[in-house]
């Protein structure tokens, strides 16, 4: 919705190019995103305001012009009717775009206006995603604070690190498969072309992380943010340290069963910031080129060029041969 407005990129450009002060490239990029978020909130309030009110006012203006013409009265300027129709049409498109993004539905591409459908889908999704009650011990509670505390305690205890002693001598018997050339490939500073390729390979409509910026923003504003983004990601590979703000995530709980009532009935997934996803995918794509030599031939999953059919082919060959 925002991206289609002609003043959107002006707002992004003005905010992005303000001086941010000294800092590492990662800190500068994070600071610019944080400031831009506040600037876009103010811009949205001034430009769009309430979408439903905007649609209502545009419709009233159009009806007033049409009533004037029906009564045989002149209008000034002559394009007033066309302007009113365009204004009303754009308001409807903005409202539909807003509810489409809120509903997270991407499979419905064409047809008549689907605002009510997207609105209903959003309400249903919110109602479905909300945890109304939870069984904690022998009792079932609907208290929001008790539910939050139970979920937090469960995952803290599940993912809390345990400090077990490790015998470093064990590393002496682990074969060294990664060559210096492979290691150099994994640690190489990514080029701008590699970062751009990874950025545009990520889905634009995926849910944003804590910073609030989805792939839509990165794709639409690449010409504005590209230099700072490239420097930030190269800084991560160069110093091998990631800014804490980049590594923050939202944990979304996905039900494992139709009617979950225990904490263990939910599966957590991470909603990461997109520039963190870019760093991760660069590493993952590089590691993928080495999986064939790291994973035994008997393991047929997750390796390009191998097939599950191989699992059946081996015993068949043994039986035939």
From TrEMBL:
It comes from the Eukaryota. This is Reverse transcriptase domain-containing protein. It comes from Acorus calamus (Sweet flag). InterPro entries: DNA/RNA_pol_sf, Retrotransposon-Effector_Assoc. SUPFAM superfamilies: DNA/RNA polymerases.
């Amino acid at each position: 919705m925002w991206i289609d407005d002609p003043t959107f990129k002006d707002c992004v450009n003005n905010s992005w190019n303000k001086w941010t002060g000294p800092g590492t490239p990662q800190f500068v990029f994070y600071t610019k995103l944080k400031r831009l978020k506040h600037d876009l909130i103010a811009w949205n309030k001034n430009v769009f305001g309430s979408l439903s009110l905007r649609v209502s006012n545009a419709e009233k203006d159009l009806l007033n012009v049409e009533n004037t013409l029906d009564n045989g009265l002149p209008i000034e300027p002559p394009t007033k009717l066309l302007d009113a129709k365009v204004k009303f049409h754009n308001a409807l498109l903005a409202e539909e775009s807003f509810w489409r993004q809120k509903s997270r539905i991407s499979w419905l591409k064409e047809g008549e206006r689907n605002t009510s459908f997207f609105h209903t889908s959003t309400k249903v999704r919110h109602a479905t995603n909300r945890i109304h009650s939870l069984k904690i011990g022998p009792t079932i509670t609907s208290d929001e604070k008790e539910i939050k505390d139970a979920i937090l305690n469960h995952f803290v205890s599940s993912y809390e690190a345990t400090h077990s002693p490790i015998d470093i001598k064990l590393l002496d018997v682990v074969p060294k498969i990664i060559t210096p050339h492979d290691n150099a490939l994994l640690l190489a500073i990514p080029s701008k072309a590699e970062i751009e390729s990874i950025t545009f390979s990520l889905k634009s409509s995926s849910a944003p992380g804590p910073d609030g910026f989805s792939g839509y923003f990165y794709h639409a504003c690449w010409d504005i943010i590209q230099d700072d983004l490239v420097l930030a990601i190269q800084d991560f590979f160069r110093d091998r340290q990631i800014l804490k703000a980049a590594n923050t995530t939202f944990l979304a709980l996905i039900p494992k069963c139709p009617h979950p009532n225990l904490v263990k009935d939910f599966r957590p997934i991470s909603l990461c910031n997109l520039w963190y996803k870019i760093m991760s995918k660069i590493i993952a794509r590089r590691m993928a080129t080495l999986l064939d030599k790291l994973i035994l031939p008997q393991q047929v999953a997750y390796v390009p060029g191998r097939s599950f059919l191989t699992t059946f082919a081996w015993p068949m060959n043994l039986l035939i041969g």
